[in-house]
Specification:
Layout: H1 2-9, H2 14-22, H3 26-32, H4 35-59, H5 62-67, H6 76-101, H7 106-124, H8 130-156, H9 161-193, H10 202-217, H11 236-244, H12 247-282, H13 293-323, H14 329-350, H15 356-388
Helix pairs in contact: 4-8, 4-9, 4-10, 6-8, 7-8, 7-10, 9-13, 9-15, 12-13, 12-14, 12-15, 13-15, 14-15
């Protein structure tokens, strides 16, 4: 007790207080941290990471898949069909899981959905018939739809206002990182195993771990808990009418669809396009043998990861800071940023025929701008839902 009294009587040092601000105590933050919420966010970020790893793993191995003798693929359109099947199933089942997520256990939906897409990826890697492989890639879209719809809603029910935006930015931070890791891990594992199918068997193992963490460690808050509201599910017809009448939500949804189209095309065909461009740039010189798809996928993964490391934090920061100062700032910044990305992305792909390094650089800047827009639009849509729905 005497030591405590002496500590209280000791005059405070302003310099110490300043240093404490710039170099905060880890133990202080750890004591204030809500462990259950932090664990839930960490689990959701981890699953989002492997979610996008799974998508880009296939994209980084398209030439290997095309060269598979059992598949007998003659045209690149068959490779594009793989992603189309995934997107169609994802699009159809996302509203279904959104409906179920408002009415039933979200932990159960996540566990079932992740188990389903992990098993679909694993079983699909053993298929030696292209059409069966295509079917299981479509099944992956069903499972991933459950997670992508339910997870952001859980975060929204755990945090409010700027905290919600910050945590959602951390959640979306896993998109570019997971995409980049998918290119790198998939191509490297396939190269080591001398079989592209082993590149698809990494994320199912990680998915099994995610299911265990969801079941035993994750928190499923009550719907509307963070905002102090008692939300009750309404009929699907009334929900659709309310959304159709929300002009801001509908326009932001259309805009987000366009951004996802560009980002999806960049993710799926980017490495293949850069590979062909690099081959064209070297011509018939001896350096042409040094260009491999594994190397291109590895470097493309690094580019996408680095663009996300900058793009996501910038998008979150801009969304939080400008919104409080400039009316209608979100759509203005999103529109200007998206327009700026168009010429950069276009010339980035054109430059692949002349300089692969210039292609990487322009793709980096274009990817960063697209991710800024993507994060801001998602944050804007959550804000619209919070205010109007």
């Amino acid at each position: 007790d005497q030591d405590q009294d002496q500590e209280q009587e000791r005059p405070s040092n302003p310099e110490i207080q300043t240093n404490r601000f710039w170099f905060p105590s880890i133990t202080h933050y750890w004591a204030k941290l809500n462990k259950r919420k932090a664990m839930t966010v960490a689990i959701l970020v981890y699953v989002n990471l492997i979610n996008y790893m799974d998508r880009s793993t296939v994209a980084g191995m398209l030439p290997k898949i095309k060269a598979d003798k059992d598949f007998k693929i003659e045209k690149d359109s068959y490779l594009g069909l793989i992603q189309t099947a995934f997107v169609v199933c994802y699009m159809i089942f996302a509203p279904v899981f959104g409906y179920l997520g408002d009415r039933y256990s979200r932990k159960l939906l996540l566990a079932v959905g992740i188990s389903f897409w992990s098993l679909s990826t694993l079983v699909g890697s053993f298929m030696y018939n292209f059409w069966w492989f295509l079917a299981f890639r479509a099944f992956v879209g069903i499972g991933e739809a459950s997670y992508s719809v339910v997870a952001p809603a859980i975060i929204s029910d755990l945090f409010v206002k700027d905290k919600r935006s910050t945590v959602l930015a951390i959640f979306y931070f896993a998109i570019p990182v997971g995409t980049g890791l998918g290119y790198i891990v998939g191509s490297e594992v396939a190269n080591v195993a001398q079989d592209w199918r082993w590149g698809l068997r990494v994320t199912p193992i990680m998915g099994a771990l995610a299911v265990l963490m969801i079941v035993f460690l994750m928190v499923d808050p009550k719907r509307g808990q963070a905002d102090g509201s008692k939300l009750k599910p309404t009929s699907p017809l009334s929900d659709i009418k309310a959304l159709l009448g929300n002009r801001s939500y509908m326009l932001s949804t259309v805009a987000f669809t366009c951004v996802c189209y560009c980002a999806g095309a960049l993710m799926w065909w980017g490495p293949s396009f850069a590979f062909v461009g690099a081959k064209s740039a070297t011509g018939n010189t001896s350096d042409i043998d040094k260009i491999t798809m594994d190397d291109i996928s590895f470097k493309f993964g690094i580019v996408m990861t680095l663009s996300g490391l900058l793009g996501v934090p910038i998008g979150s920061y801009v969304a939080q800071k400008i919104r409080h100062r400039v009316p209608n700032a979100d759509p203005l910044v999103c529109g200007c940023t998206l327009l700026a990305s168009v010429p950069i992305l276009f010339f980035g792909f054109v430059s692949a025929n002349y300089s692969i390094n210039l292609c990487y650089a322009l793709t980096f800047f274009a990817g960063k701008l697209l991710l800024i827009v993507k994060v801001m639009i998602k944050d804007l849509r959550h804000f619209i839902n919070q205010v109007f729905c």
